[in-house]
Predict the structure.
Amino acid sequence: MPHITAFARNQWYVAAFTYEVGRELVGRTVLGEPLVLYRAEMDGAAVVLSDRCVHRRFPLSASRLDGDRIVCGYHGFTYDTTGACVGVPGQTRIPRSARVTSYPVVEQDLFVWVWIGDPAIADPASVPRAAHMDSPDWTTVSGMEPVEADYGLLVDNLLDLSHETYLHGGYIGTPEVAETPITTEVDKEAGVVRVSRRMADAACPPFYARSTGIEGRITRWQDIEYHAPCLYLLHSRIAPAGVLPEADGSDPAAFHTEITYAITPSAEGRVYDFWAVSRDFARSDDGVSAFMRDLNHTVVMQDVEALDLLQRTLASEPAGYREVSVGIDAGGLAARRILARLVEEGDKPGEGVR
Ligand code: FES
Ligand SMILES: [Fe+2]
């Protein structure tokens, strides 16, 4: 795999959690485009504009808000929520070309989704759902880490959880994760990859032992659902070994966790790792929330460190190195094929939407 994965532009990407966007200007870079985000007072909607003033390219994220307008922190060019320049210092005439790009935005499931590609084909209905993130039936902890690595490396990482045993042993990994074979299903049309690993009798890693209170062996299901390019859902089911769902599908004896990642290419060799852990048990227990937040953050930082190292390593290799892929890579390889197709289709205007 080349250590630089091309970006599919005509797609929705997460730029922030909804709670990050308020009356402070936030700077983010998505698909190499610098963005400034804020929330308008007028209607409470998130606004996403290009983060470069048209005058001398000062970052608007380092500027200030005056009501719902951004006043450039360098010489005062002023922009409204649509990106139109509505004021320049020392003259009443505003050049017609004085406008910064405004990007389509959808706020859904605790995420602020943006569309960087052709706005004419941005369909809000095509944003994939992660309804548990913002549901009263689940309690969610979340965070974001920037990674100095190609975004394909993070996709690879999340689609092959056998690394939990080696990179995250003592946290979320146990020997059974790497030992248990996976099943993989690909829905090419929808751009979805599903990878399942169901362990009938496994050790309970500290992440689940402490949060659920289960002692002893467990049955552990990991069902991944990756909606290329950005949204990754891991449906996790934990129950004492031998306990299965009821015949009618109800599952009262199990503990369910939804682990959500949004994988957003920032720039070449950089990716945002948005993570969230939602649980349907001990929902109002702040101690469990703090534990899951801290432990998952530790796990994410183990990935960040490994991927930073891998990126530096690959970048120093001569071109044309070979990889050896095995059974555990089925999901990751399917994801690479879908991403390559999305890039190809997105290059043809009007054909990039699913
Ligand atoms: S750079 Fe923004 S007003 Fe001059
Ligand atoms: Fe990991």
Remarks:
- The pocket of fe (ii) ion (ligand 2) is lined by residues 157, 163, 167-168, 299, 303 (CB under 6 Å).
- The first strand starts at residue 12 and ends at 17.
- The helical segments are 151-159, 163-167, 175-179, 206-212, 286-315, 330-346.
